[in-house]
UniProtKB/TrEMBL annotation:
The chain crosses the membrane at residues 36-56. Residues 1-26 are annotated as: Disordered. Keywords: Cell inner membrane, Cell membrane, Membrane, Methylation, Transmembrane, Transmembrane helix. It comes from Halomonas alkalicola. This is Type II secretion system protein H.
Length: 197
């Protein structure tokens, strides 16, 4: 067997800064505390302010467009429900805005109110002899007008001749859409014909 020789450890001399000679000094950042200087902090805050200033108007426009889109969908849903009910039941179905489920007449001019789907003609907006089938939720913000002063009415065929018209939805920041109901009861939302809100 070979004799085991003890290993010798080499000790490097220590210099005046406390580091061993022959070894590389630790990086500068390790010797100092991590953090931001006042100038770096001010620059970071300024950049954030610029980003927020640019983002807030775009976010407001985005939410305004979404509000208008939601109201367009609400009106289209009400019209589709009324038309489908008229065809299914083979009788006249009307819809108009009301103050609530217990209302006795249509409000006609304020379509931001809840929309009632009615079993009957609702002549002159009178709900005395009309059954309220369903009431949809009111508007969440945009104003909604109809260019007629009578309820929208669907015949058993699904046609709305004589009770058709155009809804105008106006949201914030001038964003708006038109919803056109033709004589056959069909609904369209033109992309190139937007109202001046």
């Amino acid at each position: 067997m070979r004799p085991v020789t003890p290993r010798h450890t080499v000790r490097h001399p220590v210099d005046a800064s406390g580091h061993q000679a022959g070894r590389s000094a630790p990086p500068w950042s390790a010797l100092h505390q991590h953090g931001l200087t006042l100038i770096e902090l001010i620059v970071a805050i300024a950049v954030l302010l610029i980003l927020f200033t640019a983002a807030i108007p775009r976010y407001q426009q985005f939410t305004a467009r979404n509000e208008v889109a939601a109201e367009v969908m609400r009106i289209k849903t009400a019209l589709a429900l009324a038309r489908n009910t008229a065809v299914t039941r083979r009788q006249v179905i009307a819809l108009c805005p009301v103050t609530g489920p217990e209302a006795t007449h249509c409000e006609k001019h304020d379509w931001t109110l809840p929309i009632a789907i009615l079993d009957g003609h609702a002549t002159a907006g009178n709900l005395a002899d009309v059954e309220v089938l369903r009431v949809l939720e009111p508007s969440r913000g945009p104003t909604i007008t109809f260019n007629r002063d009578y309820p929208v009415r669907y015949q058993a065929t699904g046609w709305s001749r004589g009770h058709n018209g155009t809804f105008t939805v106006c949201g914030r920041h001038g964003d708006g859409r038109k919803i056109i109901v033709n004589n056959m009861g069909r609904v369209r939302v033109p992309e190139d014909d937007r109202p001046e809100c």
